[in-house]
From TrEMBL:
Organism: Arthrobacter jinronghuae
Top-level division of the source organism's lineage: Bacteria
PANTHER family cross-referenced by the UniProt entry: AMMONIUM TRANSPORTER MEP2
Protein name: Ammonium transporter
One Pfam family linked to the record: Ammonium_transp
Amino acid sequence: MNGADTAWVLVCAGLVLFMTPGLALFYGGMVPVRNVLTMMMQNIIPLGIISLTWVLVGYTLAFSNKGNSVVGDFDAFALLELDTPQFHSVAAGVTIPTLAFVAYQMMFAVITPALLTGATAGRLRFGGWVVFLAAFSILVYPQVARWLWHPKGWLFQLGAQDWAGGMVVHASAGAATVAVLLVVGRRRGWPNLRTSPNNLPLMLVGGGILWFGWFGFNAGDGLQANGIAAQALINTHVAGAAAMLTWLLVERIGNGRCTLVGAVSGAVAGLATITPCAGYVGTGAALLIGLIAGCLCAVAVRLKHVLRYDDALDVIAVHFVGGVLGSFLLGFFADSSVNPVSDDGIFSGGGGVLLWHQTVAIVSVVLFSFVLSWIVAVIISRTIGLKEAGPDQEDQDRVQQGASAYSLSGISARPATAGRAASEGAEDARRGRSSRLVSAVVNTDRVDGLRDALLMAGARSLEMSDAAAYTGTVRTEAFRSEKRRIDFEDRLRVQAAVDEEHEEAVVAVLKRFGAEPDSIYRLSVIPY
């Protein structure tokens, strides 16, 4: 056993695991405010489901030393009898514990189907998604992993190369995405639907975690702490950085602005594209691959408007196109002087043989994942259901979670301070005495302390709710390739019941908290 290699693989397993909650934050920040928890739950649940299916049957189907070139045997069922695995892309004589390899590969299996949730945002039922995860992790992923990552796999023996999952992870997940989209269809109101991301800083945090975790994703896949691992790490970073810049350039030319969403999306596209190449190419090639990836993936975002498929967060453009593109470009840039186990690509004098092998592998993986994923999705859709009902799509957190991701500045999260007129107000209400209703719109950034100030000023009862106030000033917001013209601003609607004695004090509090005089209304009311 090599202690340095073992330590490196265990660290990389943790890095790849960290990518799954990173993906939850990345997607969660880009969905509407009422679907945040549901999106995050869809990304986190694979850690539970697939970890178990991988231990029970996934690993043995993918990496059993028995079995054939298509599917493994059940000799390692539930990890009861583990032989030393036959590693891919590793020099002879280098060994790590079998369980370290099992754990590392488990994290790849976990994150693969989670990628597709960005495309289906707002549509999946939780129960149907759980069943799909289990089926995909048994019927699809282990077989693809065996074909490309086991020395007995038929695509491996053919000569196809996939360093860290351009086909095993991104192409298979992308093909599954297309299949599931065909089954669940479009969101209610699409393409006229104009949803806004709820928290782009949260998206940036998730994107940063993904970039950080990708070093384990790519640099750990050689299962050795050596020069090739260092090359894979620098290739990963350079490609992500280059793709970020070309994506922003395409945005600037097309929309006139460089956006945060574009920067993070470009980086992720570059990271996905370099994944199949990371341990097989030099730094210069990684730079070129990243530049190509950022440009083509940014352009691919527009395909959903041309082909009219509802990919909410552009999983197809970023992960599917990126994974397929990187696997294809490897046929041009692969260099055996960087890694002796690699064949040479066209630019290294190897001719078109590797490019042909890559093409066969891409087509095989995409067709296999698409067909099986479509069959599974159809069966689930016609039995327990895979798509959320139309009216529930806009508020999945309430339907599926019974909770909200955000509270209104803590207003409902703490007990109210009793106001000086609270007890009197209750008695007046019982006796049917008339009251005044004061209504106003205030800025949401002045909410702290408003409730207590109104109660102390004499408000008998309060209602607060989100409001969109018309301003007459039109501003343009861009999210990926979509532009939104907005002339409303977020505000807080406040309604306070008060007697005549305390009415002016309540109005003064509302003005102090930013209420415009034109938004303040006073009505006489008689409670029942």
